[in-house]
Amino acid sequence: MRKILVVGFLLCVAAMRADATVRVEKTGYKGWANCYRITNGDVELIVTGDVGPRIMRFGFVGGQNLFKEFAEQLGKSGEKEFQLRGGDRVWKAPEDPVATWAPDNVPVEIQVTATGVIAREPVEPLTQLQKEIEIRLAPAGTEVRVFHRITNHSLFPLEFAPWALTMMAPGGMAVSGFPPRGTHPKNLEATNPLVMWAYTNLADSRWKFTKKYLTLRQDAGIKDAQKIGMFNKDTWAAYLLNGEAFIKRTKAEPGQHYTDFGCSFETFTNNEFLEMETLGPMTKVTPGATVELVEDWALFRKAELGQVSDEELDRVLLPFLAAMEKDAAN
Q1: Cβ count near 308 (within 10 Å)
Q2: 156: Cβ–Cβ under 8 A, 6 or more apart, which residues?
Q3: What DSSP assignment string belongs to 13-46?
Q4: Model-level pTM?
């Protein structure tokens, strides 16, 4: 009986350890004293507490940071104007040069959870909005679920959409998939918008279009900013850099109103970084109500791409997307 009890106790301890593999620790990070490192031993994220809410790092433990960081803006706070800084953030859409660009340069409230943190800014004096990001890291592997939320603390209903923007480190390539393709004359109706900004030059060699994919390469030699958007019910984007891939994914809602001529995904680049952006539907947000945009993230190794073609992109990306789909189902 004693042996059975000891074995049972050890099994319980092992089970508790298996469930407690996500660790959150307060740490300094590149000049900020109040950051939080979230890790399961496979990957790690850094969330700022001195400004934000921002996720400044996501990478394999000991590996490269897939996110852009503006070195001259790290460790600082209290600026009067909005700072790019880098990393992942939440904004309100459609873009407004004043309200959307409201500064996020003050300390945020950090709530530690069993699987990560919730980082919540004070109510913005300019907009009366309050933004927060929640991170839920899987106990093993690279899967992360990220909640981008905005609460309306004004006295009036406001109409806007949650907007999740992830700034990627330079030198890589973004890929996003079109909705399922078809053939003529079987498929006669339009399937999705492809939206341009006034400064976009589709003749730029950094754009590549295949039948199934849109790709955009970032490099320091680009002279003009580029941006394009589209709608896809299964909205996803991958960023390939130095043999690794970061993928973010969300579900869009057909029939709902999306800003920017109906975009659920947008990508922007200039000579410093590339941004992958997902958007939720436009929503009338009553006082005290919250809207959220949920993304699933993952990292993958062995993401080496040859030529940009449907066949090569299928070979590299489809196994990654299938793995994310399987994990989401579980």
Answers
A1: 15
A2: 287
A3: HHHHHHHT--EEEEEEETTEEEEEEEE-SSEEEE
A4: 0.92
| Burial of residue 241, with CB atoms counted within 10 A of its CB: 0-12 exposed, 13-18 middle, 19 or more buried | buried
Nearest 10 degrees: Cα torsion 206, 210, 212, 218:
-10
Sign of CA dihedral 80, 84, 89, 95: positive
Alpha helices, DSSP H only, in the chain? 2-19, 259-262, 310-329
Compute the distance between CA of residue 68 and CA of residue 112 in angstroms, rounded to an integer: 25
CA distance 250 to 56: 20
Helix/strand/coil for 325: helix
pLDDT on residue 18: 40
Tell which phi-psi region holds residue 107, choosing left (phi > 0), alpha (psi between -120 and 50) or beta: beta
Let me know how many helices (H) and strands (E) the chain has, helices first. 3, 21
Q: How far apart are CA 238 and CA 160, in angstroms?
A: 26
| Nearest partner of 196 among 225, 233, 162, 166, judged by Cα | 225
Edge to edge, the sheet with strand 234-241 lists 109-112, 116-120, 129-137, 144-152, 290-300, 244-251, 234-241, 173-177, 213-217, 207-209
For residue 142 the two structure tokens come to 């690279």
- Report phi then psi at 155, rounded to 5: -90, 0
β-bridge partners, 300: 245
User: The tokens 């004293």 sit on which residue?
Assistant: 33
Token couple for 263:
């975009």
As given in the structure block, the two tokens for residue 296 are 């699933």
Contacts of 7 by beta carbon, 8 Å cutoff, 6+ apart: none
- Tell me the two tokens of residue 154: 């004004």
> Which pLDDT band, with edges at 50, 70 and 90, does 260 fall under?
very high
pLDDT given for residue 329 in this prediction: 73
Task: Measure the CA–CA gap between 147 and 47, rounded to whole angstroms.
Answer: 13
> What are the tokens at 218?
């970032």
278 with 295: CB under 8 angstroms? Answer: yes
